[in-house]
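Journal club side-thread
Mid-discussion, someone asked how the predicted structure for our own chain would compare to the paper's figures. Pasting it here so we can look after the session.
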Amino acid sequence: METKQIKIFHGPQHPGITGNMSVELDLIGETIQRARTHVGYLHRGFEKLVERRTVLQAFTIVCRICVPEPDPNEENFARAVEGLVGIEISERAQYIRVMVQEMSRLSAQFLWMGGQSGSIGLGTVGQWSLYDRDMILDLFEQLTGGRVYHMYTYPGGVRRDLPEGFLLRLSELLDYLEKQLPRYDKIFFDNATFRTRAIGTGVIDADTALERGYVGQALRGCGIERDLRRDNPYLVYDRLEFDIPTFEGGDVYSRALVRREEMRQSIRILRQVIIQMPQEGLVMQKLPKHRKFTLPKDDIYVATESARGEFGYYMAGDGSAHIRRMQVKGPSLIHGFTLLEPLLEGEELSNVTLIMNSLGICPPEIER
């Protein structure tokens, strides 16, 4: 019997896709023969937008490079500028930045959980996780005035000090989230449907992961222990105790378990921040006005451990008030092309969103 190959476009509006991204699929029956990633359906060109503005004007743009997780962009941008100019921020500001990064990590993990569960029809998990994420966003709104885009981590420190009683409210939220995690185990991570669909699906080989530069859960889900917060510490991470979760399977389920344990570690880090943060200290260094704020003729590379893995910025100055060159190195380029395309080949059509959501892809990082 003659078989016929068909072509379909998965997205760019499919709800299982992390952002507006399309995957062109060649199918025989339900089996994928070839996959090709297409981006460009969302906001893009951030690197050139930044280079056309003064350093301090460009700060408001970078948070939009990854909507589900904007704060690592702000941290990278601020730390790159500070490294070029030679600005040292206070200890209190460093602790506040760690707090923001870990709150952002938790928020991103809850959003991922909603998308991953929704891709296999577990709608209740999505409702729970988005509600719990909204409680984190409530705190972000109190701290920064914004829920999604915060524009809070600024060259020289942070834009404002903590509101009165903020750490107490954060501690109460952590108590609530810690009680919620076992409920997610029962309804999602231990769910027979999810385990059946995720175990053995989208398997990544550990040697290939190292060779091709995969990061985050794609790496730790293969049993490889890598985390910039420990391996190349920044801010005050070297003063905090946390574990780096790894699992051996290399599949969608292992990557999900890594994320689950990372949520526990973020709560652990935030509790230490609440205890250790200095009660007093300058949260923002005094800076020149934006037209007089110049970068030296030098370059720098900085990176954070985002919720999706290593996320870096290269920045170069030329002595003017503008950035001569900025380049973003996010997980999405390698995970969205060199990983996703071969990973989908041979898989069933029903597993596309399951695999995509496990890789942590933000399309604007690709079309940057």
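Post-session note: The CA atoms of residues 38 and 300 lie 31 Å apart.
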